Amino acid sequence: MRDVAASAASTGPRVLPRNDPRQYDDLAGEWWRPDGAFAMLHWLAEARAALVPPATRPGALLVDLGCGAGLLAPHLAGKGYRHVGVDLTRSALVQAAEHGVRVVQGDVTAVPLPSGCADVVSAGELLEHVPAWPRAVAEACRLLRPGGLLVLDTLNDTALARLVAVRIAERLPTVPRGIHDPRLFVDARALVAECARHGVDLRLRGIRPQVGGMLAWLLRRARATRTSGATSTGRAPRIVSTRSTAVLYQGRGVRKG
Ligand SMILES: C[S@@+](CC[C@H](N)C(=O)[O-])C[C@H]1O[C@@H](n2cnc3c(N)ncnc32)[C@H](O)[C@@H]1O
In the record, which residues are listed under signal peptide (predicted)? Predict the structure, then answer.
């Protein structure tokens, strides 16, 4: 497996190590393009938000760890949360703020927020980017109030995940090369055990984009690029449940009182 990769920069490609956070600066213009390099993050954000119930009290707080450009925000609209996002990448946080997220620049392994402040903590497509992911899990659980909800999705530490999410996905025109370092993928059992150590009983389910929708989307996108270079429109693929957690999986768990 190569450990360096070229990231597609708007100002010309530069070579960065896999999972180097500076890739998110190079790709800053992609976050909110529905058919851009981060398209799948939009689909996953919708699926993650579906795990979050409406707030049960005024002023309820949702802390979005590794919030990126705030793609979760539109899917939380009307649920009654104050949405606070924590991320390392300033160029992403600027965009998150433009979408109504209250942003905090910081590392998810040492979050500058008080213990028990959050009704919900979200960690979407984050843990597989954090070398010390158990530390990020400890922080997520620390932030939750008793009875608070943790929702997350990540990539499993399996040969199949490495094949699908790196070797195959990075050959598609829509997935940035080098965005993942497969050595950081998150073993599902270890994640459940780590959450349990911090008082959260995490339940997992495998997820994937719906195949027909994904193929139709790739076709539409290819046609749009060929004809005009324009962004295609049309329904985004849905994220559906799958029996296996071997590639991509969601987790949902409540912090004990
Ligand atoms: C794949 S993106 C996911 C963004 C967002 N959760 C979403 O689903 O749209 C990963 C994000 O995690 C952030 N990130 C990676 N490591 C981090 C760390 N140690 N602390 C804070 N943010 C981090 C990156 O800057 C990037 O915005």
Answer: none
